[in-house]
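Two proteins, back to back. First:
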Amino acid sequence: MADAASRLRNLAEQLLGAPLPVRIRAWDGSQDGPPDAPALVVRNRRALRRLLFKPGELGLARAWVSGDLEVEGDLYRVLQVMAGLVWERDEDARGLAEALRDPEVRAAGRELLRLAGPPIPPAPPREEVRRRRHLHTRHSDRRAISHHYDVGNDFYEVVLGPSMVYSCAYWQDGGTLESAQRDKLELVCAKLGLTEGQRLLDVGCGWGSMAIHAAREHGVRVVGVTLSQEQAAYARKRVADEGLTDRVEIRVQDYRDVTDGPYDAISSIGMAEHVGAERYLDYASDLYALLKPGGRLLNHQIARRPRRDESSYEVDAFIDAYVFPDGELAPVGTTVTQLERAGFEVRDVESIREHYARTLREWVTRLEADRDHAMRLTSPGRTRVWLLYMAASALAFERNRIGVNQVLAVRAADSGASGLPLRTRTWNT
């Protein structure tokens, strides 16, 4: 009798202690749940074994990336449900421990074991990266960056579009993704006060969009550094096509190895998330040393919300295993403190959280529209990673679980002069 869906639904509700507001469709063809709700499709028993051997977020991620678990209908709606039932619930370790002591919950777990089949842990999908013991060395950072960015420039063209900017856009009413990314780059240039002939260091330059914009629109000379070979090759071709090789140099280089300062300005857009908490003061100090007195830093960085007990913070299991290996998020207050400890004077902090949610939804739309092509360019698993990561991140920004901030800091002159006007909030595009 085909009844796996009903059994799964009942077991899930017992384990979670709450109704399951999604439909279940199981490998035996059975379905159960609200007919108008999006469906979780459990394609095989292996999906259950993934969840049992790695309960919570990582097990769900492995089932999704491998294709053992699928979603029919609105992915955002399913993620909103799962956030409340699984991810946000996981943060309360005491509540989870109490639930596992409940005899009915434990009985449901045993029934799930019987339904899952042979108790053999499935191998993780090949897209998964193991967390390394030694974090944020030059070698480990190169490997982490390569994992995320060296998956094919053609794939990123599908997701990002012609702008090839992989960070939060700055939206105006009625604007397109391309115009919003252009406005973001111009906002960074305005905050840095770029003028013709200045030297700009773009840390984590990606595919060269910021370097090209600054050189073309503001006449500055730019050095862009990245650890990604694929990004550098792509950026150099774009620079040549724009006729900017006399003004823009793209290097495959660790920011810690840049020694040709001083620079008038430094932009770091979506790069500092890779630095790590233990290395952040060193990062800030290195950038401070590369600036001339009166020089400005624009640090554009994702932030998490602070916890009452910061010692309990752990990195996101899915993000660490599949998206940004070794990446770490810090509260914006911690970032500001570390920049000032390095010698910077922080002059402006602007939150653009809602802008990132909209940017991510645009990227998801583009990837879903060209999903088959994207899978051919990289792999089905990698495409599924990016869909889940970007859709879940969009909801996290919308729900105020994470934010993104542009922090403008200055290396003040010996006299104490910042070089900034009395009114700085005149740069909005």
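And the second protein:
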Amino acid sequence: MLDAAAPPKKIVEVRDLKMHFPIHAGVFRRRVGEVKAVDGVSFDIHEGETLGLVGESGCGKSTCGRAILRLYDITEGSVVIDGREIGHIPQKELRPLRPRMQMVFQDPQASLDPRMTVAAIIGEPLVEHTGLSRDARLERIYELMDAVGLNRNFANRYPHEFSGGQRQRIGIARALALNPKFIVCDEPIAALDVSIQAQVVNLLEDLQKRLGLTYLFISHDLSMVRHIASRVAVMYLGKVVELAPRDDLYETPLHPYTQALLSAVPDPDPASAEKVKRIILQGDVPSPANPPKGCNFCTRCPRVMPVCHHEEPAFTEVAPGRFVACHLHDGTKIPEAPAAAAADQQGDAT
């Protein structure tokens, strides 16, 4: 656990990050709009911590992770990794910075070349970025296989000969090859059996402790994020609506969307599960090509107010380390609700 008395170094600083994809139509393929996949995201990640990024499918989590690593050329904003601004520098200048930042992809089958052996896959970053001899490179490959729990005798096998969990270990070993400081884990357990998920998460935690790694852990599995993350950011329709320390967010969520998400998490204790009031959101998620005016969540929010339909809430710090984008917490005067509605709101908050 990091010492609170000495604030840790910021490894990643993201400010007003936007990733908009153009929409073209017509015979001449004119630009007629844009998909606002990530629309003004800001957060920091400190050295040695894990920031969980959660939200429903299609909210922009994976796009945000890829944009931070500059796998996309971002639309607007600033991205600083290990003290270097990389948001808008050319891809050629990014090449020598790649060893500092790596990624573990969601689908281990799709992210591994089926025509390459395990040794070739793990060793490819070493070939591209180091001048190691063949023998030194092979020794490093064996070290990485040992670190992620793979048998050295499997070095000449191909990805299709491994299980899903083993393939993900290969991807993790490849990400560790160049001793990075920052790793984006893009739903690394989503494609795995439940019995294997805990093994991969425990491996990531063990590597973090031994190597001092910093993670952005992207997932829609709120239970797993609670286990691995130290802080959690909640995304909805391209924006971060709440950011808080893990325990604070899970015990007292402030944003109505966060409350709805957490109310949907299954509880293994039947007695506790019966006491949980599920918050069922009405309607569908709006299109990121045409988000609602004002608050993005206003079309589905159970506690919506008139101001929500025309004024976008600011992402403000309402308590030390707790940020939320909601008019319920920005000082906006809330109209009094009837007694029944107030009781419902109290039930939603709990």
